[in-house]
From TrEMBL:
Monomer. It holds the Pfam family Pept_tRNA_hydro. Catalyzes the release of premature peptidyl moieties from peptidyl-tRNA molecules trapped in stalled 50S ribosomal subunits, and thus maintains levels of free tRNAs and 50S ribosomes. Hydrolyzes ribosome-free peptidyl-tRNAs (with 1 or more amino acids incorporated), which drop off the ribosome during protein synthesis, or as a result of ribosome stalling. This is Peptidyl-tRNA hydrolase.
């Protein structure tokens, strides 16, 4: 096992038509992290795009699956096996309906809460104890279906703070790598 290597996976759907969707918050955060490392995403045989570099002083592989959200597990398992990363060093960055827009929450393990990307990963890695950085997108208005809501772009009002919120989530990933879960939670669960 590569005990000193981190695997950070951002969830989203591939292609330009999904780029601004709430469901692609994970991809947005990974793009920010890649820019911080100075790396560019390249195709990997695991059906993902990857950047290898240093994150918060540690070796890391940043990855965005090239599959649709509900099939994210295959690429994550492929990357975990290829790079020999232990599950406790796998971080998944994803959108979360049950957190207010802009809030960032970190945790280890838990259920999938109806999130098809998490469900696919949990099934593929045969465990749910991976680390999660949850990007709050809030609940849909009125009776709007949750699936339809996450497949819509962020609203004009949300977009005003989107870059700042994406940067904050990227900071949370770096804090998790550098300082561990408890310290990162104490820092980012204050708002």
């Amino acid at each position: 096992m590569s005990a000193d290597l981190w695997l950070v996976v951002g969830l989203g759907n591939p292609g330009p038509s999904y780029a601004g969707n709430r469901h692609n918050a994970g991809f947005m955060v990974l793009d920010t992290l890649a820019a911080r490392t100075g790396g560019k995403f390249k195709a990997h045989k695991s059906r993902a795009e990857v950047v290898e570099g240093r994150l918060a002083g540690a070796r890391a592989v940043l990855a965005k699956p090239r599959t649709y959200m509900n099939e994210s597990g295959g690429p994550v398992k492929g990357l975990q096996d290829f790079y020999k990363v232990p599950l406790e060093r796998v971080i998944v960055v994803h959108d979360e309906l049950d957190i207010p827009y802009g809030a960032v929450r970190l945790k280890q393990g838990g259920g999938d809460n109806g999130h098809n990307g998490l469900r696919s990963i949990t099934k593929s890695v045969s465990a749910k104890d991976y680390l999660r950085v949850r990007f709050g997108v809030g609940r849909p208005p009125g009776r709007m279906d949750a699936a339809a809501f996450v497949l819509k772009d962020f609203s004009a009002t949300e977009r005003k703070e989107l870059d700042l919120n994406v940067e904050r989530a990227a900071d949370a990933v770096e804090a998790l790598v550098a300082e561990g879960l408890a310290v990162a939670q104490n820092t980012f669960h204050t708002t």
